[in-house]
Write a structure and sequence with these properties.
By secondary structure, the protein is of the alpha+beta class. It contains four helices and five strands, in the order H-E-E-H-E-H-E-E-H. The two termini are about 25 Å apart.
Length: about 130
């Protein structure tokens, strides 16, 4: 279980990554941090494409980068959607949830907008009947 100070710091890392997103179509910038069992923190941002199915979410980017570095499990994913109006619009999409399932994520931290509200969920809360 992460300490509140860890959550606050990691939300800051995700928020710092979000402005680097490439989102010319949606103007919806998202940053994410994937934390491995070894404590490695890998950031990712959403990368859009005019052919929308070719776009990549921040969570998927962070996880893929961690996997490229050798990770086979991700403990926690922190998501910061700095352009979301409220936290309900900041949650990972279904595709990202399934990617998280593949790498056995334990918990997900979500924040939006100004970051005043932060929610932490077990992964089972977000995807209780995952495919796998």
């Amino acid at each position: 279980m992460m300490m509140p100070s860890d959550v606050t710091r990691l939300v800051g890392v995700a928020r710092e990554a979000a402005p680097r997103a490439y989102s010319p179509y949606s103007e919806f910038r998202v940053g994410a941090v994937a934390i491995t069992p070894d404590g490695d923190e890998v950031t990712g941002v959403n990368v859009e494409n005019a052919a929308y199915p070719s776009s990549t979410c921040a969570e998927a980017t962070a996880i893929a980068t961690a996997v490229a570095a050798g990770a086979r499990k991700i403990d926690t994913v922190v998501v910061a959607c700095i352009d979301a109006v409220d936290i309900s619009g900041a949650y990972p999409c279904g595709r990202c949830r399934q990617i998280m399932a593949e790498f056995d994520v334990d918990s997900v931290v979500v924040t939006a907008g100004d970051g005043s509200e932060v929610r932490t969920h077990t992964f089972d809360e977000l995807l209780p009947y995952r495919f796998g």
